[in-house]
């Protein structure tokens, strides 16, 4: 990202409050921050246009929905130049919930959510291993997620 973001203390406060509770109304947030709901609306629009706010998501406990197997897959590529095509193919697999291009041992690091070990096997064996450009994978199964949070954004300039 080129250049410095033109954000002030209010922008950071809005971001922080909305990350904690995206359901809060603009009017209620305005009251908390001592500005009008209209000001909040204008600032959110600005943050969306800047690409900082990318929408809102519903936080769901996937484990309660039956997705009890979470795994992290380290992917070794045949050549790093294949990243874009492999990433495009991985994005077609619904169980892939996170994908990162990484340094270190792996070229890519993927998080997948599955209902059971059989689904994990299917994703690994029948889907991922058939993607052209993947040399091999290493799978780590999560036993427990102890922390999942947003960052604490700075509320002051600088």
Automatic annotation (TrEMBL):
<feature type="domain" description="HTH asnC-type">
    <location>
        <begin position="7"/>
        <end position="68"/>
    </location>
</feature>
<keyword id="KW-0804">Transcription</keyword>
<dbReference type="GO" id="GO:0005829">
    <property type="term" value="C:cytosol"/>
</dbReference>
<dbReference type="InterPro" id="IPR011008">
    <property type="entry name" value="Dimeric_a/b-barrel"/>
</dbReference>
<dbReference type="InterPro" id="IPR036388">
    <property type="entry name" value="WH-like_DNA-bd_sf"/>
</dbReference>
<dbReference type="InterPro" id="IPR019888">
    <property type="entry name" value="Tscrpt_reg_AsnC-like"/>
</dbReference>
<dbReference type="GO" id="GO:0043565">
    <property type="term" value="F:sequence-specific DNA binding"/>
</dbReference>
<keyword id="KW-0805">Transcription regulation</keyword>
<dbReference type="InterPro" id="IPR000485">
    <property type="entry name" value="AsnC-type_HTH_dom"/>
</dbReference>
<dbReference type="InterPro" id="IPR036390">
    <property type="entry name" value="WH_DNA-bd_sf"/>
</dbReference>
<keyword id="KW-0238">DNA-binding</keyword>
<protein>
    <submittedName>
        <fullName>Winged helix-turn-helix transcriptional regulator</fullName>
    </submittedName>
</protein>
<dbReference type="GO" id="GO:0043200">
    <property type="term" value="P:response to amino acid"/>
</dbReference>
<dbReference type="InterPro" id="IPR019887">
    <property type="entry name" value="Tscrpt_reg_AsnC/Lrp_C"/>
</dbReference>
<dbReference type="Pfam" id="PF13412">
    <property type="entry name" value="HTH_24"/>
</dbReference>
<dbReference type="Pfam" id="PF01037">
    <property type="entry name" value="AsnC_trans_reg"/>
</dbReference>
């Amino acid at each position: 990202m080129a250049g410095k973001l033109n954000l002030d203390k209010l922008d950071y406060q809005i971001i922080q409050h909305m990350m904690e509770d995206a359901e809060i109304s603009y009017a209620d947030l305005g009251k908390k921050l001592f500005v009008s709901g209209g000001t909040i609306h204008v600032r959110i629009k600005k943050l969306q246009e800047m690409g900082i706010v990318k929408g809102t998501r519903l936080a769901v406990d996937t484990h309660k929905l039956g997705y009890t197997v979470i795994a992290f897959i380290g992917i070794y590529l045949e050549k790093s130049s294949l990243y874009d095509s492999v990433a495009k193919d991985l994005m077609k697999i619904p169980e892939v919930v996170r994908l990162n291009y990484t340094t270190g041992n792996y070229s890519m690091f993927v998080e997948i959510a599955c209902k059971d070990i059989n689904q994990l096997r299917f994703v690994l064996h029948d889907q991922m291993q058939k993607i052209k450009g993947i040399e091999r994978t290493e799978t780590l199964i999560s036993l427990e997620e102890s922390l999942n949070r947003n960052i604490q954004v700075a509320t002051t300039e600088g």
